[in-house]
Write a structure and sequence with these properties.
about 230 residues, alpha/beta, Rossmann fold, Alpha-Beta Plaits, 2 domains, four-stranded antiparallel β-sheet, binds ribulose-5-phosphate, isomerase, ribose-5-phosphate isomerase activity, EC 5.3.1.6, ribose-5-phosphate isomerase, Ribose5P_isomerase_type_A
Length: about 230
C-alpha cells in the first residue's frame, strides 16, 4: 500500500472510532477542519445520525452541506455536546498544535463551547513533545495591519515568525476571517507552553494561536495497520 493510502486509512480509522464512541442522535456536534475530519462527516452520514452540525471553516461548512447534514452556527447553537477535530501535533500532555489549514480561530471558538473535544489524527501526529514531527511552527492568526510588529514581538519570544504565503495566489494566505497567518517556528523543547500561549495571545493584533492547551478530552491516533490508539489524560 502507498504511503498516502496508509495515512488515509489511519485517519479514517481514528475518525470512525471517535464518531462511533461519542456521537448520538440529538447531539449538537462541532465539525473541525482538515483532511481527517472528512471521515468523521462520512461516518455520521453513513450511520444516519440525526445531529446538528456547527462548522469551523468554509471547508467544513461544505463538508456538512455535501453530506446533507443539518448545518447550524454558534449564534443558533452556542452549546455543543461534542466537537471532533484534527490536529497537526499532540504531545504527551495533550498540548496540541492546530492551524495547519489556517482554521484555528473558528476551531477554538467551537471547541471552547463544547462539552467534549475529541482529536482525530493519524499516527504521525502523536509526539512526546511539540516540534518532534511538526516543523512548521505555531500558526498564529493576526489582523493584517499589525503583522510586522507582531512578528517582531514573536522574535523577542525566541520564535522565528514566517508570514504564510498563498499557493496559486500572489501574497499571503488570507484566513476565512480575512486575517493573515504567521507560522512561529521554534526549536523544541518549548518551555512553559501554557504561558507561551498567553504571551502570544496578549500581543495586540493577535487574534488567536494554534496552541490548544487543556482542551482535548480524548485523542484518537489511527495506526498503519488500521487499528486506533486512543488516549485520555
Ligand atoms: O487545524 C487544522 C486546520 O486548521 C487541522 O485540523 C489540522 O491541520 C489537521 O489537518 P489534517 O486532518 O489534514 O491532518
Amino acid at each position: 500500500m502507498g504511503d498516502k493510502l496508509v495515512l488515509d486509512n489511519a485517519k479514517k480509522a481514528a475518525a470512525y472510532k471517535a464518531v462511533d464512541e461519542y456521537v448520538k442522535d440529538g447531539m449538537n456536534v462541532g465539525i473541525g477542519s482538515g483532511s481527517t475530519i472528512k471521515y468523521a462527516v462520512d461516518r455520521i452520514k453513513e450511520l444516519g445520525l440525526k445531529v446538528t452540525c456547527v462548522p469551523t471553516s468554509f471547508q467544513s461548512t461544505q463538508l456538512i452541506i455535501e453530506a446533507g447534514l443539518v448545518l447550524s452556527d454558534l449564534s443558533r447553537t452556542p452549546k455543543l455536546h461534542v466537537t471532533i477535530d484534527g490536529a497537526d501535533e499532540c504531545d504527551k500532555d495533550f498540548n496540541i498544535i492546530k492551524g495547519g489549514g489556517a482554521c484555528q480561530l473558528q476551531e477554538k471558538c467551537v471547541a471552547y463551547v463544547s462539552d467534549t473535544l475529541l482529536i482525530v489524527a493519524d499516527y504521525t501526529k502523536d509526539s512526546v513533545q511539540l516540534g518532534d514531527t511538526w516543523k512548521k511552527g505555531i500558526p498564529i492568526e493576526v489582523i493584517p495591519m499589525a503583522y510586522v510588529p507582531v512578528m517582531k514581538k514573536l522574535e523577542s519570544l525566541s520564535l522565528k515568525p514566517v508570514l504564510r504565503m498563498a499557493v496559486n495566489k500572489a501574497g499571503p494566505v488570507v484566513s476565512d476571517n480575512g486575517n493573515f497567518i504567521i507560522d512561529a517556528i521554534f526549536t523544541p523543547p518549548l518551555q512553559n507552553i501554557p504561558q507561551l500561549a498567553i504571551d502570544i495571545k496578549m500581543i495586540p493584533g493577535v487574534v488567536e494561536t494554534g496552541l490548544f492547551i487543556n482542551m482535548a478530552k480524548k485523542l484518537y491516533f489511527g495506526q498503519k495497520d488500521g487499528s486506533v490508539i486512543s488516549k485520555t489524560l
